[in-house]
Amino acid sequence: MTMPQHSAMPLLEVDDLHVRLQTQRGPAEAVRGIGFTLERGETMGIVGESGCGKSITVQSLMGLLPSSAKVSGRIRFDGAELVGMAESELCRLRGNRIGMIFQEPMTALNPLHTIVRQIGEPLRLHRGMSAGQARKEVLALLERVGIPDPASRLDAYPHQFSGGQRQRIGIAMALACGPDLLIADEPTTALDVTIQKQILELIRGLVAERGMALILISHDLGVIAQNVSKMLVMYGGSVVEGGPTAAVFAERAHPYTQGLFGARPAIGAPRGLRLATIPGSVPELVDLPPGCPFAGRCRYTVDACRATRPPAVRLPHGHEVRCIRLDEIAAQEGAVPA
Amino acid sequence: MSTHADPKADAGSPLREDAPVDGARFDPDPQSAPLLEVVDLVRHYTLPRERLFGPSPVVKALNGVSFSIRPGRSLGIVGESGSGKSTIARLVMALDTPSSGSIRLLGRDLQRLPRDELRAARRDLQMVFQDPYGSLDPRRTVARIVAEPLEALAETSRAEQRERAAEALDAVGLRANDLSKYPHEFSGGQRQRIAIARALITRPKLIVADEPVSALDVSVQAQVLNLMQDLQQQFGISYLLISHDLAVVNHLCDEVCVLHRGLVVERGAPQQLFAHAEHPYTRTLLAAVPRAEPVA
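Output (structure tokens, whole complex):
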């Protein structure tokens, strides 16, 4: 492969990314100035509830947003600027250098095409392989993702596979061209826990083996904890807290992160406990206040929180938090349930 | 039995004069009698033939499941897809008939009740579904949605229905002026509250909740779980909770049954069971739950 070597440059650099979507209720700022970098082979998780902007963020990386969406800011992938890149050029990256695994494997696969045709499509398109070459390559991929007796299943259709197997097929498709970056958007949410474990193990193994970078989106803190080395906590289109997974889990500096941890029931917890809840519900992106997006639901909110967007406060270990009340929260730490 | 035709007479109050069916007497002391008793439940579904002279394939959804729930207590059924969890919910709600085995609610075998009595007995039995978007009729106001079970039970007046609906909404933390709104005006968590209000309106003794929080965001899920807990303390409701989420069952239930291929493979109080699982399947299930602790 003729790949330019930029050893000093991160694989992916996102800076001050904004995405504005046109909705029925008017323009909605779905992503509000987020930034992060991802080195080659690095794994990053994005955690947050529905409507926080996590899927929109990765869709903007893939150039998959609706054409009415306005994207501004910078997304540099291996030195090339993706914001404003021509569709034809994006097509050369998608499925080739950036692979994506979707949440619902049944809707991500075309029910009318055999799996050999679907998995082989990026190989024929990006690598110019013949049908025969692609078939051989697909066989190897299916073997690697753990489809039993793959030679006899090449010409099968998606409905002939179980949910877990379909997700394995989705992974094979994302991997086909050996991407530098793998994006997995809630890849196991539709699956049973035991299958989820197998799929996450497969993704983890492949990422390590091929040196791919990984962006894993999940609402499940457990999935994030076990699979990525750094993480972003998103709320209302902003990153409210981010850093090494271990540091974020240990500190839980932002009130929203604390709320997310406190709200989860735990296996083995004694009966009769009440869960710590976050009052209210996730705001709609159209209605977001100008200041801190969490201000409406946070018990530490003061007027200043609503006025301007809080700046990033740097903590040790490259850990950043967007909250202006950290000292007050730390003072009350004893009251916060761990 | 023939004179027992007016379900309106005791609408909302404890059952007083229900004639005992097939000889079993209804025990008036709720402490000693189980609210729900499921014995040796079997449900096999016959699929269409694949070949003209071949045998019809049979899906063995449940292969002999027994459990009981005492008044005011909760039982959780955990298992993965295909384990038979939802079949249990459908059978307990008398939406389906078992191949064999019995389901007794307050001592009465639901499968043997005549239609009109079954309809009256359903007052004690309500259901909350998984999807708060699919389970509420988008063209009806909240008042009509919440009061619908009353309509099905007896001729209560519109005014009374509205009053009861307002009470039920109040119990789930919504306001009376939400009555005239439509489902699309509410968030997912609020919709699930509406679904719970609809279940509460007949003052049931048992609520069957099939994955009631799995479609909700974590922070909203906690609110709904706390609400279910409060309602249990307030009204003494029992829950039959069907879930794939061990932590949710742990939080809400006194007892848990682990279902695998239509059989209960292990049961017990969740804290003990999850700490000292014996059956390999329970262990596999527990091991698969990702723990919220970063790996070093």
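The radius of gyration of chain B is 20 Å.
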